# Entry
Amino acid sequence: MAEVRFSTSNDSKPEGKKYGKYVVIAIILFLAAMVLFNSFSIVNEGYIGVKYRFGAIARADLTAGLNMHIPFIEEIVQVDTREQVYSVSTDAYTSDTQSVQSLQLKLNYCYDGTKLSNIIRNIGIANVETKLLVPNVHKTAKDAIGKVKAEQLVQSRADVTEEIQSSLTEILGEYGIVVTAFAIENLNFDTAFEESIQAKVIAEQDALKMENKTKAIAEEGKQTVIAAQAEADSKKIAAEAEAEAIKLIQEQLANSPNYTDYLKVERWNGVLPQVVSDGANPFVALDSSSNTSTNGTASRNTIPNAANTIPETE
# Structure
């Protein structure tokens, strides 16, 4: 009968230990890689990193870039701090009980980084819209619209919008919400009311045109009166100047009586009159040749006195 022997040799033990060592090293390296990989988180631009340690907020001001944390103990969550938009459609009533239907409201906002931790603790980023924006935007807008008449709302929408934005800025700012803009994008009234508003606007425009026309006519009349007055003043001034000139001439003539004769002679054109008279015996010249003679006698007799023959000039 054959004898069976079992080998108790330890030849395979060194090789098994060698492989086990490699496995342990691989596991250590793997764990180290996991720890290292989980020790860093990237915060994107436009976000703020919030670091949690065992569920509690450790920091809420991590900037964009690579940020370190303790793996399995700390966690970094990104919060979008860029401008966001909240839109809502609702109904409201004016002070004169006019219904504003499908009122379109739009709110632009962002988070205040210095109060972000308070928002997270007390409200929660996911609950900002339902807990803060919805109730406050609705209430503030309806309260502001309820203070004005429908016609005023149509004509002064910008003023009402500014009032609502100012109120929301104050209310939401206490929670860490920064209001950057607010707008009323749509106003729908009853058809009858819109038609009455349109008719009134047209009537006011027509009245304004008539008023402007009346002002233009009045201004034209005023300018006519001014022109007439200016012309009258001008004539008065000219008349006064002429009267003064006449007065001066008369004074000069009184001081120089021969000056008139001098002017008559100076302005005489050299043509003798056809009829010369001394008051009793008129002399009629038949032609120019009869005014002269060889001895010059007729010439001397027919030359009239300058004062009686030379016509005055105007």
